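May I ask you to review the protein record following this short note?
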Amino acid sequence: MTDPAYQRLGLPVTASPYTVLRAAVRALHPDTRAVRGFRAARKRFYRQMLCAHAARQAADDTPTD
């Protein structure tokens, strides 16, 4: 099952990890990005988006034969 937050990014499977990270940063509200106390949570969110994208790419690369 794909993460709903990742699906809202609307990225193609061919997107680079850097593109995924940029989209994830833009998905957060500026006030959320500004709070220093949320730094660990933001990093966790970015890692989750990158992992979801990698899983989607891996699932897309698997042969169906």
